[in-house]
Structure formats: C-alpha cells, structure tokens
Amino acid sequence: MTSEDDEQDQRDDQSLREDIVRxxxxxxQGVNNEGGPANCQGNWPIFHQMRLSQFMTWPADLLSxxxxxxxxxxxxxxxxxxEKYGRMMESTxxxxxxxxxxxxLPKLGIERQTRQEAIIDQQVAWAKEFRERYPRxxxxxxxxxxSQDTPDSTSFETYLRGELSTYSARTLGLYERMxxxxxSQGRNLTAxxxxxxxxxxxxxxxDEAERAQS
Length: 214
Hints:
This is DUF4125 domain-containing protein. InterPro entries: DUF4125. Pfam families: DUF4125. By secondary structure, this protein is mostly helical. It has one domain (about 5-20, about 50-210). The protein contains eleven helices and no strands. Helix 6 (about 110-135) packs antiparallel against helix 8 (about 155-165). The longest helix is centred in the first third of the chain and has 26 residues, at about 5-30. The relative contact order is 0.12.
C-alpha cells in the first residue's frame, strides 16, 4: 500500500467519524427530556468535540460496525441515544426507570452484561489512572463510579454502561478487541481520548493542557 493509499484511508475514516457524529446528533435531537430539551441538546460544538474525540481512538472496522448500528436503528424505529440515556436512569432515577423505561428497552442477557462489566472495569481503571496523573484535567471529567450517581449527575461508569448496552453484538465484539489490544500494548483509552479533545482546543499534549488549567 502506498502513502497515497494510507492518506485516502485516513480521509475515509475521518469522513466516517464525522458522519457518525452527525448521525448521533440527529438521534440526540429526538431524545425526550422532562421539562423540554436539555441544554446539551442545543450545543453542537461541544457534542461534536466530545464524540469526535472518542471516535478518533476507534479502528476502521469498529467505526463501520457502529455506523451500521445507527443505520439499522433508523430502519427499525429505534433511537440508540434515547436508549443510552434511558439506561442511565436505572441508576440515577431507579423508580422512574423501572416504571417508564425498562419495559421498552431490549433485554440484555447475563453473558452480555458480564462482557460489558469487564470492559467497564478496565475503562474505569484507566479513567482513575488518568485522573491521578492529570488531576486538573480530571476535574473536568464526570465522577467515576455508579455509586456517586445522583438524579442530576451521571458517572462515567453509568454513562459507559448505557452506551455499551446500545451496541450490536458485532460492535461490542470489535470494541472488546480494541480494549484487549490497548491493554496488551500498555495504552490508556481515557488518555488517548482526552488528548484528541485538548488538541481540538489548541494544545499539543496532555502535559501542556494540564499546566494551562487554573
């Protein structure tokens, strides 16, 4: 493969990432929120920055599979963003979740939940490690654990659980493989994701961004 081919692949991957973020944004606009649309539903720049940073860490096959998930959701009348935020309510407002949300969500088997929890454990460990190394940047993150959830604050753990629960079997398998590869290579997904975020804000490194925080 030539360098021109590599550059074209990179452009194709970036185009797919942008398509996925726009697709998520479209579904996000359909998420019903008590009291009307949430402030974040009107903040495209922040949504774009945060979601693009996440997808910058994903390999092409995972991107493609998740893009297919979004397309399939549209075709079958599902909204993956509605499902993701609905599942978070199991922890933040459990009574309302059991009454109004759970009956309408796809059921997840024990094997699926076990696989997700293994991923979540690893990612929470990475997030904790990142916060310890970059405490100022870490202050801008969600609280870490489900035990810290409140009706007004959703933890990283709960958010991730909600998101993983929307993935198709194929997408979850590819995501598992990405996590396993990162573990074997000594990488940290939280650090890589936030690096892409701070680069969009004009910083060259996490250390530079950490020093710039007040």
